Amino acid sequence: MSTDTTETTATPPASASVATTDAAPKRRSYWSLWAKVPREFAFLILTMPIAITGLVVLATTFFTGLGLIALVFGVFIVVASLFIARGFGTLELVRLRWAGRTEITRPVWNRDNREQGFWRTIFAPFVDGHYWLYMLHGMIINPVISIVSWSLTIAWTSVALGGTTGWIWQRYIPDGRGDQDFWLYDVVVDWMFPGNTWQIDPVVGETVFEFFLGLIFLATLPFVFRGLTLLHDVIARGVLGSWRSEALEREVAQLAASRGAAVQAEDASLRRLERDIHDGPQQRLVRLQMDLAAIERKLERDPESARELLVEAREQARETLDELRALSRGFAPPILQDRGLAVALQSVAARSPIPVTVEIDLPTDAALPASIERNAYFIAAELLTNAVKHAEASGIRLTVSTRDTGATGHWLDVWVTDNGRGGAALTAGHGLAGLEERVQGLRGVLVVDSPVGGPTTIGAHIPFAPLAAGETAIQA
C-alpha cells in the first residue's frame, strides 16, 4: 500500500490592491517597534546596575589577583576573574536575545579539548583571547556605554511620560512660583507669536508646551530604545561574539569528518560488495562453468544426462542473474534514473515481503541532485531490508519529504518506522553503523529511536542544494 502526496501552496489573488500592500508593512513596522518597547526598556533600565555590579566584582577580583600574583593563589584569583567576566558577557548575550535581537554566535570555549583536566582548565583563559575581550567588555566598555544608554533611557522616558501626563497631576503640587518665574515662557511666546496683543495664562501655556513636548518624546521613544539596544548589540557582536576564523575552523573540521566518514562508508560498501560477489555470483559462475564442461563431455555419449545438466545450468544462470540484479540495487537502478526517486522508492516498497505504507512529499519544483537521490534510495532500501530481516514486524512505514529551514538550508528527511520488537542500535561493524557513516559523509544526521519492545523509528536527515532551473537531476 502506498500513497504519494504533493504539497501545494496557495497564492494570493492578483487583484490585490498595491496601495494596501505598500501601506500595511509601514504601519506594521512602526507598531512593531512599540511591541518591543517593554522588553527593550527592561533591557536598558537594567543595563547600568548590571554593568556597575560587573565592574565592581571584576575590578576587585582581577586587581586583587594581580596584587597577589607573586603568591600561588593570586593566579587562581585572576583565573576566577576571567571566568566571572565570561559569565557577565554571557549574561549580556542572553539579555540581548531576550530583548528581541538576533542571537549572537557564542565562542566555542572547549575547542580542541583545551579545558579537559585541572591544569588545562586553569591556564586555558590566559591563552584564549575571548576571555580577555570579555574582561575588557565587563570592566571598561559596558560600564561606559551603559551610563550613556541608561541616562538617555531615563531622560527620554521621564519627558515622554511627564509631559503627556503633567496636566493631570501638576495642579496638585504647590510650587510657590510667581509670574517672574515664567520669563522663559514669555520669551518663547514672543518669539513664536511676535506682536501678539492677547494674554495667555503662563501656567496653562507651560502645561500645553510640556504636553506637546511629551508627545514628541513619546512618538520617538521606540526609535530611541531601538537605537540604544542596537548600540549594545553591535558592541556585543564585535567583542563577545565568535570570530569568523572559528567558524571556518569548525567548517573545515566538519568537512574533514564528513569526508572521512564518506571514505569509510564507500570502503565498507566496496568490501561488502566484493564479499557478496565472491560468496554468491562468483560461486554460481564456477558451478555453471563445471556444468557446461560436464555437458560438453556427455553430449555425445549420454544426451539424456546432458539435457538434465542443461536444465540445471539454465537454473544456475537464472539465479546468478537474480543475485547480480539484487547486488546492483546498491547502485543507482535504472528506474531511479528514468522515473525519479519517488517511483524508485515505491518500487522498493512493493518488493518488500512485509506491507509498506509509503508517504512521499517531494515538491516538483525542488529537484534533488543525483548524488542525493542515489544515497537516499540506498539508505531507504537498506533500512527497509534491515526491518524485514531483524525487526519481526508486521507493518512498515516509509516517509520521505523535504523542508526548507531558512538558516540551515534545504533538508531531505527519510523516515522508516516499523512495529517490530525494537532494540536497534548503532553498533560498530553492523549495518546501521555503515549507514551512519554514509549519512555523515553527506553532512547529515542519522537518528535512531528503538526502545526494546518497539516500535523502531530511524530517520536520515540529509542537507542538499536544490538544482537550478534547467539543470539535470539524474546524470548517467
From TrEMBL:
Segments traversing the membrane: 41-62, 68-88, 144-169, 211-231
Record PANTHER family: NITRATE/NITRITE SENSOR PROTEIN NARX-RELATED, NITRATE_NITRITE SENSOR PROTEIN NARQ
Pfam families xref list: HATPase_c (PF02518), HisKA_3 (PF07730), Sensor (PF13796)
Keywords: ATP-binding, Kinase, Membrane, Nucleotide-binding, Phosphoprotein, Transferase, Transmembrane, Transmembrane helix, Two-component regulatory system
Protein name, entry field: histidine kinase
Entry keyword Transferase: yes
Catalytic activity: ATP + protein L-histidine = ADP + protein N-phospho-L-histidine
Segments forming domain Putative sensor: 43-240
The organism of origin for this protein: Agromyces hippuratus
Molecular-function GO terms, alphabetical: ATP binding; phosphorelay sensor kinase activity; protein dimerization activity
Gene3D superfamilies per the UniProt record, alphabetical: 1.20.5.1930, Histidine kinase-like ATPase, C-terminal domain
Residues annotated as domain Signal transduction histidine kinase subgroup 3 dimerisation and phosphoacceptor: 271-334
Top-rank lineage group of the source organism: Bacteria
This protein's record includes keyword Transmembrane: yes
Top-level class of the enzyme under EC nomenclature: transferase
One CC-aspect GO term: membrane
Residue ranges of domain Histidine kinase/HSP90-like ATPase in the record: 377-464
EC number annotated for this UniProt entry: 2.7.13.3
